[in-house]
Structure formats: structure tokens, C-alpha cells
């Protein structure tokens, strides 16, 4: 079995007596696994388990393996799993540039190098020179792009998407979706997407799982 | 794992910091009340002190005063606040009132009381204003201040408690969706007031219950305001306790301890009675709601509420203005409305002496606030990171220092402080200030902390930031304004403390407040004016800082500029 | 004199029995000075008057310059707070390193501390400047409210009850308690006294008792029995029963202390006040508190006078420094300044004839304030009654008038 990608082994999450999630799956690099289901079906619980922020009131068994490493008991910040929510959640107290720099690993020490990485990321999404802007002055599409680049700069090994496009208007939605998927494939990231929009699932083109 | 254990420790340490001094202090009061105080050569338990107390001729009146002023002040304050919300919430005038009353919260009780005293005294500003019309060349000999019924004391309490309850209610309203309820109720044909009372109030009351209890307990046992405005023949019980405590006849300390316990029992009794009354009112209230009345006399009630609230605000502001004029006054006799000459003399003479107590005030307040803030953030972080949500019982513990009468445990604590050898220093004073500062910081910071969108934390973690980095770089910067506001509240509370500073500081630690109260005993309004103004400024400036700092730091961050 | 010398010898013996480091011996003054250097003295003294506070601050500067002793004035609103604190320390077993080094004290507070063993001493009569006082001529220096001081406290000021009135309002003030009662009946609401047990209020009761009772000599001794007490005080209660309805606010409220009387007169609420500092009215005029038409007067039969003392708690931290300060307060320099109405105006404890010429001349050149009486005008000084009278009077007053809702 190929050890790269995101492997979910016998993952069972329950709350009290109720079993919420029972899942075994493997997402290869560049592949997108779509999870669909009505609200309350445990989609968010699944994401919290993978990212490592599951509330202690839930009971979880099984393993989450990323590129051959078992990350099940690691702290969230050690897992190298990125996430995007339906809100862009740009830190309102930081400028656009600082938001991006926040994602940049601290291993990149040189100040000029850090600045260059931030500028390149902005250029990638057509926002050159936006470093000093206040996030709240950006348009919805710009904010979504900054959020994506911030996440990518942190060099994750997998990507989780929590209804990432549901708050964007129809016109933007397609654009941003393509951008996200394109970057994920370019970087060879396994992606797990939670959505209730069939269009998202269709565009992802990968396996679709339905939670009841 | 070690870090998890450290986080479990947070609530434990906080509760110990709060309740330790209180429990010890109560022990130090209970023992002498039952006749045990070896230093005075008594080491056997007896109830002599209580029978002495019950035979004291003023006992009944002092107890009645405590109960009456406490309950009356609470009912009046609550009534004003409820009516102003019911009649005016969501309107433009209400916003103005809200803006106007918030700063008054920072005015220390003693300063507000001094100001009120000068306004309403028969030789005060109001009387001076009407003297030419009334033809008075001497002030009328009428009993206003220190009236034996305690009305002026009640007034002094109400002007401070209305802003407190108003802001507490405002904070609680956030979760009650008042605007929607108001619209629905009015669409169903209810008047503004009856609609609010029937739909919003029942949901808000449980959330402001503890603040109301704190107001009731405080009003019943307040010492400094009662010394300035309250009756003296006899005084309310709490003031009498202090008098006996300070009597040169040392055996009176037994009676003082017994009276302190009676004061404690009175407060507990009044709270129980209030709690029972809540049940009764709820029962009748439900009937009233079901009867479907659409409201009567709404216009009159609205007008009354507005007048009452404006009066409380105007009283404090005018009172402080009066004290400000006094601090610049030369000779100023009745019935002159303004002094003969305005002079800097009083400021020049007292300015240099003010520095040391001012520095001590600031150092004590800053330390108590820093520690209180540290503990609060520690607890909140434990909650954020490990889901350690405090139970309802823990919330009561946090309110304990606000609900127990200070007089009941501070004197006992004084003995303990001496025993442990930490008395008389700033350290001890800071420790006891924390007991009173921490609850307010905790109460004002926990809601914003909980309301913070946790997904920011998840994102930051996913970006590789550890828990501490999330706290320092994301959570606290985003919560800058509530953190500073909580600090300002704590600061104002610390600045206003009289009894704890005086008793635990062995008189060696002098703050603006202890100086103000001891100088006030001299009665020279010029000096009282200077100290009251400085005291108000010391409490007020941190609030200004809490507004200005975020506005400056986040001048380019639209989302954070306005809380 | 003999009595105090015997006590002093006894004290020396007591000192000798204690560890040398704990108890400075005032007889060896050089050693005291040496030990005092660098000490900080926490002087607990009433802080309600900024005139007094100013004088204390000056004394602090001087002892710091002269002896390297730092003075920290702990401002009390009531001297009994300090008594409570020493008691709390004793009950906690804190027998050294206490928070209080020196207390401004007299009367009831002194009697109470002395009886409870809360004081250090004797030491006062061994101070170098004790040689400048005359305890034979001025018995108030060794008998504090008739309680022998036994060298446990050092005197530093003489106070005397003096009345004041606004001559623009009242031309001929009443010169006795009986006349005061009549005046109040004719001018209801224009007189009051601070609420006992405030010091000034209690003094008013004692002054009235001395003037009205038929048995003034019994006041020098402790109360013999209830019968005596009733017999001696009956005229006082009759007087107060008649006076009270004519008081300011009809006696339903009282001012808290003596200084309040000045503010009340400034507010035109009362026409007659009194104070224990003969110079208080002049001070108030020069500080623009009262108009310059205010004048002082005393009752024809004389008024109560007493001495202010300083005492050192048994567990004081800086006993040597406290003694140096007490000795400085008795020095001609400090006494002359204290006596100067421009500064404070309290009476001196020194016997002027014992001073060197230059220093005596300094005293005699002091100018009296506009509302200050000359020594001749001040008239006879009546001794304080035994403290037991004050305690009973305060209790009785409280039950009769202080709880009369």
C-alpha cells in the first residue's frame, strides 16, 4: 500500500452512545475526497478529529496517518494539516502581509526571504503590493485568496476544506474553487472537502462519501 | 501533559486566592464574637458579646437602617434600570444615556458621595441657587444629610448603582435578542414597556441576578458612603462595627465581632428574602403576562424613568463639578453660588503631598490588576484549550467577595495578616485588593473571551502555531479592547478600596482614597475636593486609555477600531 | 516627682533584664542617637488637619537633617485605629518589629494601652529635653486625664478648650454653659457639638459637667459607684435634655468631629463653635475658611485643658528613632514653631524660665493671630476628669441621645 497521502484507518467517533462517524479511507496526493451529508451528520466532527481540535467530550478510536506518520495523538500545530473555513478568518489585527507571514514556517529566518515569499504569494493570486492593506478593506474574493495563500505558505501536507465556498456569490464561487483545487493539485496535497453543494463535489471530481 | 496539569491548576489557584483570605478572615471574626481572643486574656467560648450587642440601645435601629437602606437602594436602582430599558432601549436617547452613564461607573463611591453631600446639604449648591428667590441669608435648619431614615444614604447609593446595573444589563442583553422581541411584542399590540417587561425582562433577569445580589449586599454593608451621608444616631450596623473596632475600650472588639457576624447574617437573610421574592414575583408575573394586558400609563412611566436616570447622572456630574470649584475656592460662604476668589492655593499646597499616595495608589492598582488579569487569562485559557468550563457554583465563588460584607472578614483578616508577618506592606495590600479586583476582571473579560470565534485558533494551529503563540499573537491582540476594559474596571475597583487598604496596610500604605477619607474627617471641602478629583482621575484615566489605546494601535484596522 | 523617679529606677532594672539589642536605653542618649541613625519612624497621628500635617512634615525634615531619622506620618482618622493595630499585633504574638513606632495619644487611649501592657517604657522622663519642662507647675505633663503617665509617654503640646463665634452675627457670646443654654433657646438651630465619643464632643460634655455639677472634686477620682455617678451627672442630663431640641438639626444629627464645626460655621449653619487648639479660629481665618470677623472666647469659670503626648508601642520597630523624634518635639526649636500661630499655634509644654535667653526671646516674639487669645485672656485651665467619667458619659450620652431614633 502506498504510504503517501492522507490515510484514515477505522476512525470511529462517538458522543455518548451515539456513533457519529465511522470511516476508513485513503486520499492520495492531489486527490480530493468529498464528504457530503445533512447538518448534524458529523461532518465538522470528522474535520475536528483530523485537525486535532476534537472536544474531549467525544470518544475517538482509529488512526490518522499522514505520509506514513501516525498523527492521531499529535497537537494540531504539529500535524501539518491546513484548513479553510467558509469564512476567510483573516486575523483582523494583522495586515495582509502579516497574515501571510503568520503562515510562513519560522524556519525561514531571513527577513528578506520572508518578505519575498509573501510578495510572491500575493503575485500568484494577482494581488501584488497588497502587503500593508487592512484585511477588512479587501473584497470577498480577495480575502478568500489571501486565506488560501496563507494556508499554502505554511507548507501543509494535507488540506481540509469546511464548506469553503458557501459564503461566496455564484460568480466568485467557481473562480475561487478552481484556484483552490488548482493549487492543491500543483502542490500535490491530499484534500478532504466537506460540503453540501453538489456543484463542489462535481468540480472536485474525486470520491464522494455521504454521511447519514 | 505537564501543561494540561498546569491548566487544571488555574481555577484552583484562582479560587484559593479569592476564598482563602475570606475564610481566614471570617474565622478571625467568629472566634472573638464567641469570646475567644487570647491577646485580651479571654480564651473561653461564651455568648456574652451577643447579649451585650442585643442590649445596646441602638441595635434595633442600626439593624433596621442596614436592611432598609440596602433593600430600598437596590429596589430603586433596579426599578430605574428596568424602566429605562423597557421604555427607551433601542432609541437614540438611550444611546446618549448609555454613553453618559458609563464613565460615571468609574467615579469612586466616596467621591460621588462627597459631591452629592455638597449638592443637597441645606447650605449646598441647590440651596444656594434658590436662596435669593427664597430670601435665605442663612441655610434652612432642615435635616437632609445624615437623616435618621437614611434617605440621603439611599440617594448616594442609587446614583452609583444605577450605572452599574445598567451596564450589567446591557452586557446580558446581547444574548436575549431584544430588538426582535420588541418588534414582535409591538406587532402584537403591546406597549413599549409592557412588551419589554413581558418578553425580554424574564430572560435578562437570571443573567443580572448576581450583580443585583452584589448591589444588595454592598448597599447593606457599605462603610465609606455611610460615613459621609448616613445617619449617626445610630449609624447603620456596619459603621457601628467599625466604631467599636476602633474604640479605645478594647473589650468592645468582642461586641464588634459579634455585630460583624450579625451583619453577615443580615446580608444572607436579605439575599434569601430577595430570592424568595423572586419566586413570588415570577408567579404573579406569569399571571400578568398571560392576562395579555397591553400596558397602561406607558408615557408617564417612560418620562419618569428618563427623569430619574438623568437625575442620577446629573447629580454625580454636578457634585464633582462642585468639588472641583471648591478645590479652587478662596473664602466661600453661604449663600454665595460661586466663591469670592478662585485661587490655586489649595492645589499648590497639597499638590506636592499628593505624589507619594498617588504613586502608591497606582502601583497597588497596577499590581493587583496585573495579577488579577493574569489569573483570569490563565483560567480562560484553560477553558479555551481544555474545555474547563466553570460550573455555576464556581461563579458564585467568584461573586463571594462582592456579596460578603467587607467588614465581616477584613478585621479578622487583619489579625491573620499580622500573624503571618506580611502585614503593613504593599504586598499584603495588593493581595487583599486582588480579592476584590479579580471578580470584576473575571466578570468583564469572560464573556468577550467566550464570544471569540474559536476557528481563528484552529486556523492558527493549522498554520503551525502552538497554543501559546495562538494566545500571544492572535487571541490577546484580537481581545485587546476587552482586556484593557477589564483592566480599567479592576483599576477603578482598586483605587476605590478604603477598608482593605486601611486595615491590611497598617496605615503605612497610604493611597489617595485612605488619605481622602482621613482628610475628610477634617471637613475642609477644599481638600476633600482635591482628593476626590484626584481619586476620580486615577479611576477614570484607565478607562480613557482602554478607549484610546485600541483606537491608536488599530487605527488602520477597521474591524478592531470600534469594539 | 518621687513617684516617677521610683518608676524610672524600676524601669532601668527592667531594661537591664532584657536583651540589649531589643531595648534602647534613653539614659545612654549617645547610644540612642547612634541606634536611631538610619531608622524610619512610623508615627501614627491624626491626619485630619493639614496645618498639623504640615508641622509634622517639617519635624520630619528636621530630624532627618539632624539625626538621620526618617519620619513617616501615618495619617489616622481616629487614634484608636493605632490602638487596635497594636492589639492585633499582640494577639498575633508579634512582640517585635511592629508596624507603629510612635503614637500621638492621650486620655482614654493612653489609659487603655497602659492598662493592656501595650506600651514601651518608661522612657519619657529620661529624655534630655525633659529638663526643660516643669512637671510640678504643670501637672498635666505627668497626669494624663488624671492617669499617671509614669514616663510611658512624652508631652509635646498643650491644648485648651476655646470657643469661637462670628462677631458679625453674635455680638456677646454666652460665657458659661447656663448662658449657652439660654442663648440656644433664643437662637435655635445655631449651635451643635461633635458627636461623642469624638474627642471634641466628649470634651464638651466634660466641660458642661464641670461647670454644672455640684460636686466637681469627685471628678478627680474614678467613679466610686452608680449612686455617685447619678448624683454628680444629673444636672448635665437636665441641661442636655433642655439644650438638644435647640441644637442644629434639633439634635437628630451631629457633626463627626471638631473640624466639622469650622466648615459648618463657614457654611453659616452655626454661629458658635469650639476647638481644643486655642489658635484654630485664627488658622481658619488665615486659610480663608472663616471670615476675619470670627473671634475666640472662653467661659468665665475657665475651660478644660490637657497635654498631647507621644507614646511608643511595646513592639515598636524603631524605638530609638521614636525617642529621638519625641525628644526633638520637646526641643525649643520645635516648640517655638508649633506655638507660632502662623504655623499651628498649640501651647508649649516647656517652662519658659528654664530656657536660655535667646530661645525664650524667640517664644516671646511670636505674634498672635487675630482670633487668638493672650495667655491672660485664656484664663484658668480646668483639669480633665478621671477617664472613667468620660467612658461612662460617652456610654450614657449614646443611649440617651446617640440612638434616639
Overview of the structural elements:
The complex is a heterotrimer of chains A (212), B (563) and C (405). With 212 residues, chain A is of the alpha/beta class. Helices cover 33% and strands 25% of the residues of chain A. In chain A, the strands form two sheets. In chain A, strands 6-7-8-3-9 form a five-stranded parallel beta sheet, sandwiched between helices. Chain A has a four-stranded antiparallel beta sheet with strand order 2-1-4-5, with helices on one face. In chain A, strand 7, helix 5 and strand 8 (191-194) form a beta-alpha-beta unit. Chain B is mostly helical and 563 residues long. Chain B contains 25 helices and two strands. A two-stranded antiparallel sheet of chain B has the order 1-2. In chain B, strand 1 and strand 2 form a beta hairpin. Chain B starts with a helix and ends with a helix. The mean pLDDT of chain B is 87. Chain C is of the alpha/beta class and 405 residues long. Chain C contains 15 helices and eleven strands. Chain C has helices spanning 2-16, 29-36, 50-67, 80-91, 107-115, 177-186, 199-212, 226-243, 258-266, 280-286, 319-329, 332-339, 357-364, 375-378, 387-402; strands at 40-46, 70-76, 102-105, 143-144, 147-148, 153-160, 162-166, 272-275, 294-297, 303-311, 381-382. In chain C, the strands form three sheets. In chain C, strands 1, 2, 3, 6, 10 and 11 form a six-stranded mixed beta sheet that branches. A three-stranded antiparallel beta sheet of chain C has the order 8-7-9, covered by helices on one side. In chain C, strands 4-5 form a two-stranded antiparallel sheet. In chain C, strand 4 and strand 5 (147-148) form a beta hairpin. The termini of chain C are far apart. The interface between B and C is large, with 69 and 69 residues.
Kindly list the characteristics that best describe this protein.
heterotrimer, B: 563 residues, mainly alpha, two-stranded antiparallel ribbon, globular, C: 405 residues, alpha/beta, six-stranded mixed beta sheet, three-stranded antiparallel beta sheet, disordered N terminus
Amino acid at each position: 500500500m502506498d504510504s503517501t497521502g492522507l490515510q484514515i484507518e477505522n476512525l470511529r467517533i462517538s458522543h455518548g452512545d451515539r456513533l457519529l462517524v465511522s470511516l476508513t479511507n485513503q486520499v492520495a496526493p492531489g486527490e480530493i475526497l468529498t464528504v457530503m451529508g445533512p447538518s448534524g451528520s458529523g461532518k465538522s466532527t470528522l474535520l475536528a478529529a483530523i485537525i486535532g481540535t476534537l472536544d474531549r467530550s467525544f470518544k475517538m478510536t482509529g488512526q490518522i496517518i499522514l505520509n506514513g506518520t501516525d498523527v492521531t495523538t499529535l497537537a494540531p500545530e504539529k500535524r501539518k494539516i491546513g484548513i479553510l473555513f467558509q469564512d476567510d478568518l483573516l486575523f483582523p489585527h494583522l495586515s495582509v502581509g502579516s497574515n501571510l507571514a503568520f503562515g510562513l514556517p519560522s524556519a525561514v529566518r531571513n527577513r528578506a526571504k520572508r518578505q519575498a515569499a509573501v510578495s510572491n504569494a500575493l503575485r500568484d493570486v494577482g494581488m501584488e503590493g497588497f502587503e500593508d492593506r487592512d484585511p477588512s478593506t479587501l473584497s470577498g474574493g480577495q480575502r478568500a485568496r489571501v486565506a488560501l495563500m496563507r494556508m499554502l505558505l505554511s507548507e501543509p501536507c494535507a488540506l481540509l476544506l469546511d464548506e469553503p465556498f458557501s459564503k461566496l456569490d455564484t460568480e466568485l464561487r467557481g473562480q475561487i474553487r478552481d484556484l483552490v483545487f488548482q493549487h492543491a493539485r500543483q502542490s500535490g496535497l491530499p484534500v478532504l472537502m466537506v460540503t453540501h453543494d453538489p456543484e463542489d463535489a462535481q468540480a472536485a471530481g474525486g470520491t464522494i462519501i455521504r454521511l447519514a | 501533559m505537564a501543561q494540561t496539569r498546569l491548566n487544571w491548576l488555574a481555577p484552583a489557584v484562582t479560587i484559593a486566592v479569592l476564598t482563602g483570605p475570606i475564610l481566614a478572615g471570617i474565622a478571625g471574626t467568629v472566634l472573638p464574637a464567641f469570646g475567644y481572643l487570647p491577646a485580651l486574656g479571654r480564651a473561653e467560648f461564651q455568648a456574652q458579646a451577643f447579649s451585650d450587642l442585643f442590649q445596646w440601645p441602638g441595635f434595633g435601629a442600626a439593624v433596621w437602617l442596614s436592611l432598609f437602606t440596602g433593600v430600598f437602594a437596590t429596589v430603586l436602582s433596579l426599578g430605574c434600570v428596568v424602566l429605562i430599558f423597557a421604555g427607551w432601549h433601542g432609541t437614540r436617547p438611550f444611546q446618549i444615556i448609555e454613553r453618559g452613564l458609563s464613565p460615571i461607573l468609574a467615579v469612586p463611591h466616596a467621591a460621588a458621595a462627597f459631591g452629592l453631600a455638597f449638592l443637597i446639604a441645606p447650605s449646598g449648591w441647590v440651596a444656594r441657587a434658590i436662596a435669593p428667590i427664597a430670601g435665605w441669608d442663612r441655610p434652612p435648619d432642615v435635616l437632609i444629610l445624615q437623616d435618621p431614615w437614611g434617605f440621603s444614604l439611599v440617594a448616594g447609593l442609587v446614583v452609583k448603582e444605577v450605572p452599574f446595573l445598567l451596564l450589567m444589563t446591557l452586557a446580558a442583553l446581547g444574548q436575549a435578542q431584544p430588538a426582535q422581541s420588541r418588534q414582535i411584542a409591538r406587532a402584537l399590540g403591546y406597549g413599549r414597556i409592557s412588551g419589554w417587561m413581558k418578553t425580554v425582562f424574564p430572560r435578562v433577569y437570571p443573567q443580572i441576578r448576581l450583580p443585583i445580589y452584589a448591589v444588595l449586599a454592598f448597599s447593606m454593608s457599605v462603610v465609606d458612603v455611610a460615613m459621609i451621608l448616613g445617619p449617626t444616631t445610630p449609624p447603620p450596623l456596619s459603621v457601628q462595627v467599625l466604631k467599636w473596632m476602633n474604640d479605645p475600650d478594647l473589650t468592645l472588639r468582642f461586641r464588634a465581632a459579634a455585630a460583624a457576624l450579625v451583619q453577615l447574617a443580615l446580608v444572607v437573610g436579605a439575599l434569601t428574602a430577595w430570592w424568595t421574592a423572586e419566586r413570588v414575583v415570577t408567579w404573579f408575573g406569569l399571571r400578568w403576562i398571560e392576562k395579555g394586558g397591553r400596558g397602561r400609563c406607558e408615557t408617564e412611566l417612560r418620562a419618569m424613568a428618563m427623569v430619574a436616570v438623568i437625575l442620577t447622572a446629573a447629580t454625580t456630574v454636578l457634585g464633582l463639578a462642585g468639588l472641583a470649584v471648591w478645590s479652587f475656592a478662596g473664602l466661600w460662604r453661604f449663600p454665595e453660588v460661586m466663591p469670592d476668589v478662585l485661587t490655586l492655593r489649595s492645589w499648590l499646597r497639597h499638590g506636592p503631598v499628593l505624589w507619594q499616595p498617588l504613586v502608591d495608589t497606582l502601583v497597588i492598582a497596577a499590581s493587583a490588576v496585573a495579577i488579577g488579569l493574569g489569573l483570569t487569562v490563565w483560567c480562560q485559557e484553560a477553558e479555551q484549550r481544555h474545555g474547563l468550563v466553570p460550573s455555576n457554583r464556581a461563579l458564585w465563588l467568584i461573586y463571594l467577595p462582592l456579596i460578603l460584607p467587607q467588614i465581616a472578614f477584613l478585621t479578622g483578616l487583619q489579625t491573620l495578616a499580622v500573624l503571618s508577618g506580611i502585614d503593613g506592606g504593599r504586598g499584603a495590600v495588593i493581595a487583599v485588593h486582588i480579592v476584590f479586583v479579580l471578580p470584576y476582571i473575571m466578570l468583564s473579560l469572560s464573556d468577550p473571551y467566550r464570544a471569540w470565534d474559536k476557528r481563528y485558533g484552529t486556523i492558527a494551529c493549522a498554520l503551525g502555531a502552538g497554543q501559546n503563540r495562538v494566545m500571544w499573537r492572535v487571541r490577546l491582540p484580537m481581545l485587546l479592547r476587552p482586556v484593557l476594559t477589564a483592566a480599567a474596571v479592576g483599576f477603578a475597583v482598586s483605587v476605590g478600596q478604603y477598608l482593605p487598604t486601611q486595615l491590611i496596610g497598617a496605615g503605612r500604605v497610604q493611597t489617595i482614597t485612605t488619605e481622602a477619607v482621613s482628610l475628610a474627617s477634617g471637613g475642609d471641602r477644599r481638600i476633600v475636593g482635591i482628593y476626590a478629583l484626584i481619586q476620580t482621575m486615577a479611576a477614570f484615566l484607565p478607562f480613557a486609555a482602554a478607549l484610546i489605546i485600541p483606537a491608536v494601535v488599530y487605527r488602520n484596522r477597521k474591524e478592531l477600531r470600534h469594539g | 516627682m518621687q513617684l516617677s523617679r521610683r518608676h524610672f529606677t524600676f524601669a532601668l532594672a527592667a531594661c537591664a533584664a532584657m536583651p540589649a539589642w531589643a531595648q534602647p536605653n534613653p539614659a545612654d542618649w549617645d547610644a540612642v542617637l547612634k541606634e536611631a541613625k538610619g531608622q524610619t519612624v512610623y508615627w501614627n497621628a491624626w491626619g485630619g488637619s493639614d496645618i498639623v500635617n504640615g508641622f509634622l512634615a517639617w519635624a520630619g525634615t528636621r530630624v532627618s537633617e539632624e539625626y538621620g531619622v526618617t519620619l513617616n506620618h501615618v495619617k489616622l482618622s481616629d487614634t484608636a485605629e493605632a490602638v487596635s493595630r497594636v492589639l492585633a499585633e499582640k494577639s498575633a504574638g508579634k512582640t517585635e518589629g511592629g508596624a507603629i513606632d510612635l503614637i500621638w495619644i492621650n486620655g482614654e487611649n493612653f489609659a487603655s494601652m497602659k492598662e493592656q501592657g501595650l506600651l514601651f517604657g518608661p522612657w519619657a522622663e529620661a529624655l534630655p529635653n525633659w529638663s526643660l519642662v516643669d512637671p510640678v507647675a504643670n501637672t498635666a505633663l505627668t497626669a494624663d486625664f488624671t492617669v499617671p503617665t509614669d514616663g510611658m509617654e512624652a508631652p509635646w503640646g498643650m491644648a485648651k478648650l476655646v470657643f469661637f463665634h462670628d462677631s458679625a452675627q453674635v455680638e456677646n457670646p454666652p460665657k458659661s454653659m447656663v448662658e449657652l443654654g439660654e442663648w440656644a433657646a433664643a437662637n435655635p438651630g445655631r449651635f451643635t457639638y461633635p458627636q461623642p465619643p469624638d474627642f471634641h464632643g466628649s470634651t464638651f460634655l466634660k466641660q458642661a459637667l464641670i461647670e454644672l455639677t455640684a460636686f466637681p472634686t469627685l471628678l478627680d477620682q474614678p467613679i466610686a459607684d452608680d449612686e455617685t455617678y447619678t448624683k454628680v451627672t444629673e444636672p448635665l442630663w437636665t441641661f442636655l435634655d433642655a439644650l438638644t431640641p435647640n441644637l442644629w438639626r434639633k439634635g437628630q444629627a451631629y457633626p463627626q468631629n471638631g473640624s466639622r464645626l469650622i466648615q459648618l460655621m463657614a457654611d453659616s449653619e452655626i454661629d458658635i463653635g469650639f476647638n481644643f487648639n486655642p489658635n484654630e479660629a485664627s488658622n481658619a481665618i488665615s486659610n480663608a475658611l472663616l471670615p476675619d470677623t470670627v473671634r475666640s472666647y472662653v467661659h468665665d469659670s475657665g475651660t478644660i485643658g490637657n497635654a498631647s503626648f507621644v507614646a511608643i508601642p511595646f513592639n515598636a520597630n524603631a524605638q530609638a528613632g521614636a525617642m529621638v523624634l519625641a525628644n526633638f518635639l520637646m526641643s525649643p526649636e520645635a516648640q517655638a514653631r508649633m506655638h507660632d500661630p502662623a504655623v499651628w499655634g498649640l501651647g508649649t509644654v516647656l517652662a519658659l524660665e528654664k530656657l536660655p535667653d535667646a530661645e525664650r526671646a524667640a517664644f516671646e516674639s511670636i505674634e498672635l493671630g487675630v482670633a487668638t487669645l493672650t495667655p491672660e485672656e485664656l484664663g484658668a485651665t480646668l483639669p480633665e476628669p478621671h477617664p472613667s467619667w468620660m467612658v461612662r458619659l460617652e456610654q450614657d450620652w449614646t443611649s440617651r441621645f446617640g440612638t434616639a431614633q
